[in-house]
Amino acid sequence: MEIIFIIFFGLLGACIGSFLNVVIDRLPAGKSLAYPPSSCDACQHRLSWLDMFPVFSYIFLRGRCRYCGAKIPIRVMLVELGTGLLTAFLYIHFRLVWMLPVSIGYSAVLIAIGLIDLKHQLIFPAIVFPAAIFALIVNFFVPNLFNLHNFLFGLLGAAVGAAFLLLVMLLYLVLRKREGMGLGDVYMAVMMGFMVGFPNIIVALFVAILMGGLMAIFLVIFKKKSTKDMIPFGDFLAISTIITLVWGSPILHWYLHWVKLE
Ligand SMILES: [Zn+2]
User: Fold this and answer.
1) 256 and 141 fall within a common domain
2) Which residue of 14, 16, 73, 145 has the smallest Cβ count within 10 Å?
3) CA of 83 to the centre of ligand 1 (A)
4) Same domain flag for 159 and 55
5) Same-domain pairing of 182 and 231
6) In a shared domain, residues 134 and 194
7) Which domain holds residue 134?
8) CA distance 109 to 129
9) Distance from the CA of 69 to the center of ligand 1, in angstroms?
């Protein structure tokens, strides 16, 4: 029985990933998500469901368009596969509780934001604002999501997230005399606060800074980028939020125990 649920959630996630590919391609270009139906970028041939079955179509067609043979970007398959694996994992981790659909929805939003930021160095308000409002509504109606009073702790999380990122922005402006990150990161921190609540927002910010810092050191050492380049911080925020949704409380307790506060 168990394996059927795991396969179901894996396939569900792969289908969500397939939709996220459409979002990533169309939203930054200002195109409609619903119309026109998907077609090949090269030959414009309409794609049937056989061409769009997540992950498997890519494998059976060996990564090429059935009609003209043009290469399909591997990113398409990786997003489907990654979202599928993550969704199956979320089921294994949470089981059938409220946190499962909530975390699947949040992860989908975070993957879309992260991939658009990676491609365009832009955090899209058109995704962040509706997602923040959605998380606010979830906090209001779903009981006991953070094992705390969701609504107040969500507001507190959003305030802490926004205050922290505004502070980093200001410090950057004063010390380096230029913008290191945009207002998009601040909006995103507000959304993250609603998603993970307080005090887990601190875990999310800490993990993101840790990853961003390690990546920056790595890139500077290997001279891929100079310290003057921007790093897409939105990606680290997206990854750290997913990590916090899953392991936020254990990480927090481990840390408090480590510094002997608990
Ligand atoms: Zn084609």
Assistant:
1) yes
2) 73
3) 25
4) no
5) yes
6) yes
7) 122-262
8) 11
9) 6
Structure tokens, 49: 């469901």
Residue-wise pLDDT for 2-56, tens only, equals 999 999 999 999 999 999 999 999 988 888 888 888 889 899 999 988 888 999 9
Tell me, in angstroms, the distance from the centre of ligand 1 to residue 109's CA.
29
**Same domain? 166 vs 80:** no
Is 116 contained in some domain? no
Burial class (CB in 10 A: 0-12, 13-18, 19+), 22: middle
d(Cα 84, Cα 78) in Å, to the nearest integer?
Answer: 10
Cα 21 to averaged position of ligand 1 atoms, centre (Å): 17
Residue 136 in tokens: 């606010």
pLDDT per residue as tens digits for the range 55-86: 999 999 999 999 999 999 999 999 999 999 99
Ligand 1 centroid–CA 85 distance in Å is: 28
Element (H, E) at 250: helix 233-258
Q: How far is the CA of 78 from the centre of ligand 1 (A)?
A: 20
Q: Are residues 82 and 127 in the same domain?
A: no
Measured CA to CA, the distance from residue 240 to residue 248 in angstroms comes to 9
Does one domain contain both 81 and 133? no
Residues 154 and 84 in one domain: no
pTM of the model: 0.90
Task: Show Cβ contacts of residue 113 under 8 Å, excluding neighbours closer than 6 positions.
Answer: 123, 124, 127, 128, 131, 188, 234, 238
45 CA distance to ligand 1 middle (Å)? 6
CA of 25 to the centre of ligand 1 (A): 17
Label each residue of 86-122 as H, E or C.
HHHHHHHHHCCCCHHHHHHHHHHHHHHHHHHHHHHCC
